[in-house]
Amino acid sequence: MNAKDAPNPSASLVALLHGPDQPGLVARTSGWIYGRGGNILHADQHRDDEAGVFFQRIEWIPANGGGADAASFDAFARSLDMAVETVWTGEVPPVALFVSKVPHCFHDLLARWRLGEFRGKLACIVSNHRDLEADAEYHGIPFYHVPVDRSRKAEAEERQLSILREHGVRLVILARYMQVLSEDFLEACGCAVINIHHSFLPAFAGARPYHQAYSRGVKLIGATAHYATAVLDDGPIIQQDTIHVNHRHSVGDLVRRGRDLEKSVLAQAVRWHLQHRVLVYGNKTVVFD
Amino acid sequence: MNAKDAPNPSASLVALLHGPDQPGLVARTSGWIYGRGGNILHADQHRDDEAGVFFQRIEWIPANGGGADAASFDAFARSLDMAVETVWTGEVPPVALFVSKVPHCFHDLLARWRLGEFRGKLACIVSNHRDLEADAEYHGIPFYHVPVDRSRKAEAEERQLSILREHGVRLVILARYMQVLSEDFLEACGCAVINIHHSFLPAFAGARPYHQAYSRGVKLIGATAHYATAVLDDGPIIQQDTIHVNHRHSVGDLVRRGRDLEKSVLAQAVRWHLQHRVLVYGNKTVVFD
Amino acid sequence: MNAKDAPNPSASLVALLHGPDQPGLVARTSGWIYGRGGNILHADQHRDDEAGVFFQRIEWIPANGGGADAASFDAFARSLDMAVETVWTGEVPPVALFVSKVPHCFHDLLARWRLGEFRGKLACIVSNHRDLEADAEYHGIPFYHVPVDRSRKAEAEERQLSILREHGVRLVILARYMQVLSEDFLEACGCAVINIHHSFLPAFAGARPYHQAYSRGVKLIGATAHYATAVLDDGPIIQQDTIHVNHRHSVGDLVRRGRDLEKSVLAQAVRWHLQHRVLVYGNKTVVFD
Amino acid sequence: MNAKDAPNPSASLVALLHGPDQPGLVARTSGWIYGRGGNILHADQHRDDEAGVFFQRIEWIPANGGGADAASFDAFARSLDMAVETVWTGEVPPVALFVSKVPHCFHDLLARWRLGEFRGKLACIVSNHRDLEADAEYHGIPFYHVPVDRSRKAEAEERQLSILREHGVRLVILARYMQVLSEDFLEACGCAVINIHHSFLPAFAGARPYHQAYSRGVKLIGATAHYATAVLDDGPIIQQDTIHVNHRHSVGDLVRRGRDLEKSVLAQAVRWHLQHRVLVYGNKTVVFD
Question: Are A263 and A105 in contact (CB under 8 A)?
Fold first, then answer.
């Protein structure tokens, strides 16, 4: 399943950088690119006045038409005391989808992938159950059944890591994957892991958030897409949304209505991440949308 | 400042009842009213299937054109094992507004009152500061300055209670009143107290919720109108809403943007309460909107 | 593909009625049901004060546990001068999906059907193209390719009508079906036809609404689910929604972002219709949600 | 009533420019500013790929700490074939509010002005009625009663123009002003005129939009803030929003609920305009928010 992405027909370089604010940063980064014949497509910056930090996303077509300038720009940005990551959109990152039994985010992402909504290649599907295997096969995507036995979790994670390595995975999406990944796994996988949590975090972290919401009598339910970290449901938030509910809604209704939120919030976060629009800074994100 | 409310030109009886579900409740309550010549304007019911509880709001114009049937209906509903409260909309309940220095909810409520959005009479304004006194006077509403000294809080609350009694207040609105009311006060005041909290509860309860939200990096801020109870920010929720924020918003921006939420959420909760649409059940509400 | 619908495990009768308002209607309909041993699950009514019309949706489990009371209730309601339609939820209505090439609403509805979100049986798929045939087959739903040649449209509609008759279809969903159905077809099909239009009607009726929206520079795009009538994009509206857009969004972005709206708005309208919650009145709808 | 605006404590230059796209524009504008010792606070650009047009908003603190560089930057931008307008935020633009009898936008804007939400000075209030005169006086803002007699409209507009000239007004806000301004007035006033229309334009342009919406049976109502042009309700749109309504809402309810939309949409548009964030391009706007 290959990626198409209409708004970006030709390949470009995209840099995300941040560091201590200083005069002239916008002029110097754009000047560096212009001076080498690059054509800037987008340049978006943000200044955290309180912390004195400068953030920038800059996208350009280099004069030579290839990704070779990435390393040079990184070196230049570091000389300005910036942390930086520059990617070449001509390379399509392989993505792994982790699922369990709940199918709605899985089906929604597949349908979007077929429509070309994501810059990335859906390389493989990993699941601790076989429920979605036939669907994966129908779509022609490799499916790996990796059961997770509580007492032998490390073994399962070893198997998962080896699958990720085999496919060169650059992003893991937890599409309602009902297992907590260990800190070891998150370090070893060497790439971003995006999770969808079915509440408006930090409210109702942990298990069964719709039951928690029902019990508290809230008038809105939410969904949160965030980067997975060692602390459960506490990673940097990428996107959130809510919808109104009322006393007529049973827990089952919250589950059903929440599915629509989970699908759109997760898809939006994945889309932004794959467009290299999300910069993590401390436990927060800057999203250049 | 007197109330007008366009959708209810003539006075009616409104009953809120709930109790163990049993067959025939809809038929029996409507039959009772019809049998006495009453004209039912609205009848809305809800059944909590899990708990086996029946809830109803029923509004009717009695044959005799007065509020005398309220007590008879209450007796009838109790004979069905229902908890019930019936009000006569011909009586306009006096309302007290508690404020501190922050003016936006205060101004918004005043402007809405002048437009007749609420069924109720704005009887008095109580504040621990004098900042809004001139505005209250301009609008012709009695203003009481009751400073709250931490060491003599009980004394201040005594003064507040006496003001409420003097005006026969049936509802207290805490319009960004920056003091916690004691459990004693809440019991003694003998009427509902509606508070507006500037977060999507249960997230960010307590002090400085916008600072908490900023620090956590959420992508939505919220506001919650709820009945005040002895446990801070934990009472039954009446209404909530959220809006999107992003990394460009400083804490000051969250404060500013949150004001719009606080105003509309509080006004909606007050409006519903004064229309006798909110039934408290455990720590939750059923809102017949 | 069979329907499951968690909130309504046991079958019930659902009546939608409306007619001239008169005292005692709530008491009389509920009394009729109670008098025959029926157990009312929901009763929701609305009064159009201006037009003097009473509307009601009432759902009950009859004493005999079957659908036989439907005709009796209809006769009773007609004796009250009401137009009425009562259905027995024990019968699962067959539904036809009309599609062309655009797949998102099609995939979304299929995924929801598999999750049991709709009270209805997806009986067949009709398309003027073959693009979605393989997907239909994978899901085990009969697929009919009925090409529509402009000069022989009546012939194609004859073929479509015969498919609907063969499956006993009670609802047609136009899931981005890119052909206008004739007035003759709409009369002959003998059932409701729900269409999704990709704008906030009445703005941008007709062809290419996202191009129209882009050209006008609106800051919101919308979607509208409505019953198809002889006048294009003018039938009774069931549901609508909007999302914000800005100058950064190309027409392609509007198309992509609008898909999420179209999916959720259409699904909601279908769900309500199949729960017998939508009462058409003139060119408007009363939705008992 | 003077303006405060927390996020911009010290004065800056803000340029809005647009013109044919060409390589190096970001580098050249930022380089020009940096080369003169300016400190860029924000730089936001947009490229209309289809039309080949470049748009930019750039805000900076000039080295000399005054507004003198505005003219030099304008000359420079024009040398790049750009249309440009640069303002010095140290100058506070006088604003006129036009009102009739409907008070909600008027009261809302006054309350926001007192909270410092707008960069601008509320210089005067002009009305064809006296209803809001007392409120204007209480807030200490000059109030001009200019009755508009249909047969002598030109005379009234002459009077209005002379008031605008007297106060050096740079922005006119039509806060539910119930008169159409002539093309002559719009040309002669020499400044932007922002209107709030109580529908989601282009739906329901013209008179009584809530009645139109009710009659059509839409499930959302909206509000639109736009620049007034010679064609009624057809000018460039700055901001829009919608809320859900249902069959229970009478026209009176739409009017009441729409007020909340009108207030927030108008205030947002005014805020953006006064922050020099709105660039008009053809009949559309680019809003650098």
Answer: yes
